[in-house]
Amino acid sequence: MDKMKAYRDRIDKLDDIILSALEERFSIAEEVGVWKKRQGLPLQDVKREEEIYDRISAYRHSDVLKKVYATVLAESRRLQA
Questions:
Q1: Cα 57 off chain centre by
Q2: Residues of the domain holding 51
Q3: What is the CATH number of the domain that holds 62?
Q4: Distances (CA, A) of 17 to 13, 14, 63, 79
Q5: I need a surface site. Which of 40, 52, 65, 75 has the fewest CB within 10 A?
Q6: pLDDT averaged over the chain?
Q7: HEC letters along the chain
Q8: Whose CA is closest to 33, among 22, 23, 21, 43?
Q9: Distance in angstroms (rounded) separating the CA atoms of residues 12 and 53
Q10: How many CA atoms lie within 13 A of 13 on its CB side?
């Protein structure tokens, strides 16, 4: 059971890092939304999203990460609106 606790402790630490990074990302997305509105730009930048997905392709679990990022990007656009 000590091994399981060690795994869970590591996962908890990583979750804290991920959640903190997502909070920061979403805050920046809100700022980007304000800027895009002032510039008259559309919320969705397909080229930028393709660049992100291309970067994700380099990771071992890219299929799963692309699914996660589909949600991250959709929520970022929602926050920009």
A1: 15
A2: 2-80
A3: 1.20.59.10
A4: 6, 5, 21, 21
A5: 40
A6: 97
A7: CHHHHHHHHHHHHHHHHHHHHHHHHHHHHHHHHHHHHHHCCCCCCHHHHHHHHHHHCCCCCHHHHHHHHHHHHHHHHHHHC
A8: 43
A9: 26
A10: 5
Provide the pLDDT for residue 57.
97
CA distances from 81 to 30, 46, 58 (A): 8, 16, 30
pLDDT tens across 29-63, in order? 999 999 999 999 999 999 999 999 999 999 999 99
| Total number of domains in the chain | 1
